[in-house]
Structures are given as C-alpha cells and as structure tokens.
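ok new one. same drill as before - structure tokens go in, u give me an amino acid for every spot. 216 of them this time. try not to just spam alanines like last time pls lmao
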C-alpha cells in the first residue's frame, strides 16, 4: 500500500501516520521530519532549509523531490509507505507521478484530513514531542500520563518545534491554501481522493482511515 496523507499543518497527519505504521507495518515518510533531521545534522540541505522552515515557507521543490526519491528506494519501502507532508505543490505531485512511473509503482489512495482553521491553530500551539522516540503529545488533547515523562519510552526530553507559534502558523496556513490545497482537486480528478473528517477524536479518525484502507 502506498498512500499520501494530505491536510493543512496540524491536521493530524503525523498522529494518524503512527497508527497506520503500527497496523500495516509500512514506514511513514515525513518530509518535515527528514528536513528537521537535516537541520539538526547541519548538512548542506539542512543549512539551506532551516531559515525557510522557521519562517513557515516551503522548501524548494528540487530539494524535497530528491529526498523522497532516494528514500522510497530503501528496502523498508518495498511493501509500501505513507507519504506525510509530500507532495505539497502541483510540481511535487507531478514529480511524484513521474517517479512512480519510472519505479513501476502505483499510488493506492490519498487520504485528505479535513479540519477547520481554528482547530488547527489550537492543535499546533499545544503540540510537543518526545525528543528521544518521537512520540507526539498535546497539552490539552493528548497529555502524557506524567507531565515530564514520555509514556512510550520513559525519557524526559520533550521538545517544541520552532515553527509552532501563531505568527509562523499563519504563514504555514497561507502556504497550504496557496500551494497545497489545489492537490485536493488534482487527486480527486485522478479518482484517488478519500476525504476523512479530521474533527473527531484521534482514535475515531484512526478507525475511519482504517475503514478507507480496508476498502481499497
Ligand atoms: P511538516 O513537518 O510536514 O509540518 P506540517 O505539514 O505543517 O504538519 P504538522 O507536522 O505541523 O502537522 P500534522 O498534520 O502532522 O499534525 P500532528 O499529527 O502533529 O513541515 C514543516 C515544514 O517543513 C514546512 O512548513 C516546510 O517548510 C517544510 N516542508 C515539509 N515538507 C515539505 C515539502 N513537501 N515541500 C516543501 N517544504 C516542505 O497534530 C498536531 C497536534 O494536534 C498534535 O499535538 C496532536 O497530538 C494533536 N492532534 C492530532 N489529531 C488530533 C485530534 N483529532 N484532536 C485533537 N488533537 C489532535
């Protein structure tokens, strides 16, 4: 199974990807995570990407297309993968189509998480992550059992993203509506789009996505 999780910043793509990884044993390929890893490693790409990410703008198409193309050639992607945060522009979507054709792959579906804008801002503002194992949390919607300790790995290494503030969030939302939202129509026209209401509880949305995936 090869699927795309599409939706604005804070829609729950990363949260839902983790459920799909556990259930279907395919990796999550998050271009946001890959870019943040490059930033942390201070690689050439990371140094170019840092300012752009911190400002809430989109990193150039050629960089992300290159990263994704290399990643899906790795062995753990042989049985399928979840694309989280890619494609994000029409040019990236076309490049992905070409990539799949060259590699002889087929896209199973595009799951669009539909969430209203006020909820997005609230979700992003309260988000934090375990720096050790990557488990995601939320101050209000998904707090850990003990305030400073990760439920999954037990470490005390919570971090917040530099781009999770109100001003940057506004720029990220603008980038989404201008550059990424046209992909909804793009994949609808290809018969691949499956809309899911992203306003319910995290487990409820996970089970709706599961229904979609089981029907493929
Ligand atoms: P990226 O890391 O992809 O960020 P994003 O798309 O803005 O998405 P987020 O990670 O913010 O949100 P999400 O939908 O995963 O939500 P989450 O599950 O965490 O990209 C960051 C930057 O990298 C971009 O701005 C850009 O600069 C660059 N970039 C990345 N890919 C690129 C590309 N292809 N091209 C160019 N540039 C690129 O949930 C959010 C919070 O809400 C969490 O705290 C969670 O616990 C909570 N939550 C989740 N679901 C629910 C629910 N149902 N109810 C209540 N709370 C919930």
């Amino acid at each position: 199974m090869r699927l795309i999780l599409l939706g604005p910043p804070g829609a729950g793509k990363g949260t839902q990807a983790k459920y799909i990884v556990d259930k279907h044993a395919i990796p999550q390929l998050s271009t946001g995570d890959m870019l943040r890893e490059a930033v942390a490693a201070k690689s050439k790409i990371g140094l170019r990407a840092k300012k752009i990410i911190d400002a809430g703008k989109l990193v150039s198409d050629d960089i992300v297309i290159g990263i994704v193309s290399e990643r899906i050639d790795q062995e753990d992607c042989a049985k399928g993968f979840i694309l989280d945060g890619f494609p994000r522009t029409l040019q990236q979507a076309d490049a992905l189509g070409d990539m799949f054709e060259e590699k002889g792959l087929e896209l199973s579906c595009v799951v669009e998480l539909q969430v209203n804008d006020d909820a997005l801002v609230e979700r992003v503002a309260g988000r934090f992550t375990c720096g050790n194992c990557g488990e995601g949390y939320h101050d209000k919607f998904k707090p850990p059992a003990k305030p400073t300790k990760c439920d999954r790995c037990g470490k005390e290494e919570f971090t917040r993203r530099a781009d999770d503030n109100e001003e940057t969030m506004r720029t990220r939302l603008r980038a989404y509506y201008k550059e990424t939202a046209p992909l909804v129509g793009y994949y609808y026209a290809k018969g691949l789009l499956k809309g899911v209401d992203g306003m319910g509880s995290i487990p409820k949305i996970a089970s709706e996505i599961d229904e979609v995936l089981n029907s493929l």
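Residues 166-180 form the longest helix (15 residues). and btw Strands lie at 2-6, 28-30, 81-84, 109-114, 127-130, 136-138, 158-159, 193-197.
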